[in-house]
Design brief:
- By secondary structure, this protein is an alpha+beta fold.
- The chain folds into 4 domains: about 90 residues, 2-Layer Sandwich (Herpes Virus-1); about 130 residues, no CATH class; about 260 residues, Transferase(Phosphotransferase), domain 1 (Orthogonal Bundle), CATH 1.10.510; about 120 residues, 7 Propeller (Methylamine Dehydrogenase, Chain H).
- It is about 25% helix and about 30% strand.
- It contains 17 helices and 47 strands.
- Strands 5, 6, 9, 11, 12, 18 and 19 form a 7-stranded mixed sheet that branches.
- Strand 35 and strand 36 form a beta hairpin.
- Helix 7 packs antiparallel against helix 11, helix 8 packs antiparallel against helix 9 and helix 12 packs antiparallel against helix 13.
- The radius of gyration is 37 Å and the shape is elongated.
């Protein structure tokens, strides 16, 4: 037999003994030891404390402390008796089965996913597009104003002034939702990200964080959703000077100029490799220069190069299949790809294979890695030395090599390569003569057909440096050696973001291509993902009232609606057909609640002070079970709000500034709670606390056990700005939400005030909270849907979307995956999402 279980403190778990662990009784009925009560954190409300057992907010004697609370004599007596006797096993009451209802908007992202990516989505108004320079919707001038640079959820850095940006399309959002539902800016961006493949998300994260590891990369600002075309874009910094703008391909540069430019290019490529990223192929447009002459890598342009190479391969495959060499030659002349784009042989192999061409001889030996960037870098340096001659020779080589590669003729490929390399060697000999043997040998090694035989970037940098100065010692090299493991790198040109067999780019004319090479800010198309929302918003109209809908309640399988037409209608939740009408009120019915008891009841109240209690059983009775009336005078405006607490009490909020508690046993008035200075407009009950909101702008908290006041929210300091009258309250657990006259939503979680929410610009007449959903509607005829996510840091509110209506929203209710909206035009709309 188990030893006796002694009553213990719920905080320190020590048995109560009446000496060191003295049980003190709180107003909620639970007991805790005196020492632990002294150590509990004090809520921000004066003279209150949270019970450690039930977390209820209760009155607390101040400044006397827990010693002023009564001892729990019964617990002390039980504790002493259990030591001498066997404990009686008490079976805990069985738990009610949890009924799972569908979410209002199904298949949304998880809280963890939202936290990981929300910090990378920049505000919609930080990016501006100059449509005057747009060409076929693809070439756009972008700028950013006061952008907060996102570096993930950890920290941000503010930029001032206007900056040019590059935009690369990473996905599209196609909205198939019907009936006026509109997803918010952030929700659309999150949809696209949520639907992306894991590999694409990982690559995107690598790009967004790469500037934290290397300063030689143009800073990725984050992700921006363009609501004009419904595309999500990667936003990257654009430097003022593009290397392509200052380099002329038909000019041959001297060796010292080559060394200076080459060292900067090597440092930029090395900085990219430090982040374990590989471009795969670069062009002059991929390099930009800052105010101090340092070269940076433009990631958007790197991704753009991928499209150029893909287009070249796609056209080549198409022409090869049609055996039309004339068209291939014409395409190679007009597409501009011969200008400063130098893909390595292994990159061409990978692209051809992605086009569906099987190359058996190249499956194991052609790997794209760090050495692929060395090839492009060496070609760029040869361009500086040989000028236009090298461009022409490389152009002829590429458009002869690719068809041979597609045909699978390895012998022809090797012959074309050797012939091209001989011509390049001749150009280098003519340009460098016999004085730079080491430099020529190193460039030859960089252009080696086998990627594994090419030197490291740091070796090329050292050789270029020696053309200017011969140092006595070297500190470079040791860190570079660890980058030779090609399996750890990620190639941008072969990644999910830049590669798609269905990719199209609208810039296909001569002017558009020229703008590309002039370094304009480009919008690059990439069909990585299309975040398609397949869920439809279904709407059902309930018509039967003759005036404004003022309240809604659900229970017993029915929907109850009250109206200014002095009636309460009953609707079946099965088919939303009208079942019955309660008549008897002589004034506008302001509120209605359902009481879940045996037998179930419906309570309605009007602005004349009348309260009707209706029995809920089929068939419905015409006459009310009970009719109550509050006293009034010429200043009195009747009842404005109703709330119910279990089966003990229901509460009325009145125009005489009071809250009245009515007994559910004999329907008598139990007590009147005074404190507000204006009409009590809204009531809410949660966690043994009654919340009352008033036109005086305050919210008062009352203990449900003895109806004593607990705290007051909204009493601002003199001269402080207020949000106006409190028009609606919603409470769930430890979260309280208040809607105000000026459109502001205030929220408290665990008694701590959170940042105000500005989802509306005018009065909010109704707000409703259910688990992680927050609905609000009012004067602007729009229902705003927001999702609540809570963790250790607090509650995060994300606006998901809006539902536009034809009339002012007067009341809201959410139940079992359906949203019920009452309007001023006498209609009730029922919304639900169906896949």
């Amino acid at each position: 037999m188990e030893p006796p279980q002694l009553p213990e403190c719920p905080v320190c778990l020590q048995p109560f003994d009446g000496e060191s662990t003295i049980p003190r009784v709180l107003a909620c009925g639970h007991s805790s030891c005196e020492a632990c009560l002294l150590q509990l954190p004090k809520p921000p409300f004066p003279r209150t404390i949270r019970c450690p057992a039930c977390t209820q907010l209760v009155c607390y004697p101040h400044p006397q402390g827990p010693s002023a609370l009564p001892k729990n004599i019964d617990l002390l007596r039980i504790s002493s008796s259990l030591i001498l006797s066997n404990p009686t096993e008490l079976n805990s009451s069985p738990k009610k089965p949890i009924v799972s209802f569908p979410d209002f908007i199904p298949n949304l992202w998880s809280h963890e996913f939202h936290n990981n990516w929300k910090g990378w989505v920049v505000p919609r108004d930080t990016i501006s597009i100059d449509a005057s320079v747009a060409l076929d919707g693809s070439i756009l001038q972008g700028s950013v104003t006061n952008l907060k640079k996102s570096t993930g959820p950890s920290f941000r850095c503010r930029f001032k002034g206007n900056h040019k940006v590059g935009l690369f399309k990473v996905g599209s959002f196609m909205d198939n939702v019907e009936y006026r539902f509109k997803y918010s800016y952030l929700a659309k961006a999150m949809w696209v990200l949520f639907k992306m493949k894991d590999a694409a998300l990982s690559e995107l994260e690598l790009i967004l964080t790469c500037s934290l590891k290397s300063y030689r990369i143009c800073t990725p600002y984050g992700l921006w959703f363009n609501e004009e075309d419904d595309h999500l874009y990667l936003v990257c910094e654009r430097k003022n000077i593009i290397l392509l703008d200052v380099i002329v391909s038909d000019v041959q540069y001297d060796v010292s100029s080559l060394a200076m430019i080459g060292m900067e290019l090597c440092e930029a490529i090395s900085g990219l490799h430090e982040t374990e990223l590989v471009s795969g192929c670069t062009s002059l447009s991929c390099y930009c220069i800052d105010d101090f002459g340092h070269v940076f890598i433009d990631l958007n342009e790197v991704l753009m190069v991928s499209w150029r190479v893909q287009k070249m391969i796609t056209d080549s495959v198409s022409f090869a299949q049609n055996d039309d060499s004339k068209k291939l030659a014409m395409a190679s002349t007009n597409d501009g790809l011969e200008i400063h784009v130098f893909p390595s042989p292994e990159l061409l192999v990978q692209f051809v294979q992605k086009e569906g061409v099987d190359l058996e001889f190249a499956k194991s030996t052609f790997f794209v890695g760090y050495s692929s960037d060395v090839w492009s870098l060496a070609c760029t340096l040869v361009l500086f030395l040989a000028g236009k001659s090298f461009v022409e020779e490389t152009h002829d080589f590429l458009f002869s090599y690719i068809p041979a590669l597609i045909s699978g003729n390895a012998h022809d490929c090797e012959g074309l390569y050797m012939a091209w390399l001989d011509k390049v060697s001749g150009l280098l000999d003519a340009r460098l003569g016999s004085g730079y043997v080491l430099m020529k040998q190193l460039l030859h090694k960089c252009l080696c057909f086998d990627p594994g035989s090419r030197p490291l970037v740091v070796d090329l940098w050292k050789c270029l440096r020696e053309l200017i100065i011969k140092p006595k010692f070297d500190v470079m090299g040791s860190s570079q050696q660890k980058l030779t493991n090609e399996s750890t790198c990620h190639c941008l040109l072969l990644g999910d973001l830049s590669w798609s067999s269905n990719k199209t780019n609208k810039v296909d004319n001569e002017d558009g291509m020229m703008n590309q090479f002039k370094g304009e800010n480009l919008v690059v198309e990439s069909d990585v993902v299309e975040g398609f929302c397949k869920d439809s918003l279904i709407c059902t109209d309930l018509k039967g009232h003759l005036d404004c809908i003022s309240g809604l309640a659900i229970g017993g399988g029915f929907l109850f609606s009250c109206s200014f037409d002095k009636t309460v209608n009953v609707w079946s939740l099965q088919g939303f057909n009208h079942v019955h009408t309660f008549k008897g009120h002589e004034h506008k019915v302001m509120a209605v609640v359902f009481v879940n008891r045996e037998p179930p009841l419906c309570i309605s109240a009007d602005n004349g002070g009348d309260i009707f209690i209706w029995g809920i059983k089929v068939p419905f009775e015409e006459k009310a079970i009970k009719r109550l009336n509050e006293g009034k005078d010429w200043r009195y405006s009747g009842i404005h709000a109703l709330a119910v607490s279990g089966s003990e009490f229901f509460y009325t909020g009145s125009g005489d500034k009071s809250i009245k508690a009515w007994s559910m046993h004999d329907y008598s008035l139990s007590c009147t709670m005074i404190g507000h200075k204006a009409v009590v407009s809204t009531l809410a009950v949660s966690n043994q606390v009654l919340y009352s909101g008033s036109w005086d702008g305050t919210i008062r908290l009352w203990c449900l056990n003895d109806h004593t006041p607990l705290a007051v929210l909204g009493e601002e300091a003199p001269g402080a700005l207020t949000c106006g009258s409190v028009l609606s309250l919603a409470a769930d657990g430890q979260t309280l939400v208040a809607a105000h006259e000026n459109g502001c939503i205030k929220m408290w979680n665990n008694d701590v005030p959170l940042n105000s929410i500005s989802a509306h610009t005018s009065s909010i007449f109704s707000i409703y909270m259910d688990r992680h959903w927050l609905f609000s509607g009012g004067w602007n005829k729009t229902v705003v849907l927001q999702k609540l996510s809570s963790d250790e840091s607090g509650v995060d509110v994300t606006q998901i979307g809006t539902i536009a209506g034809d009339s002012v929203v007067t009341t809201l209710l959410y139940s079992q995956g359906k949203l019920f909206v009452g309007h001023a035009d006498t209609t009730i709309k029922v919304y639900s999402f169906e896949g």
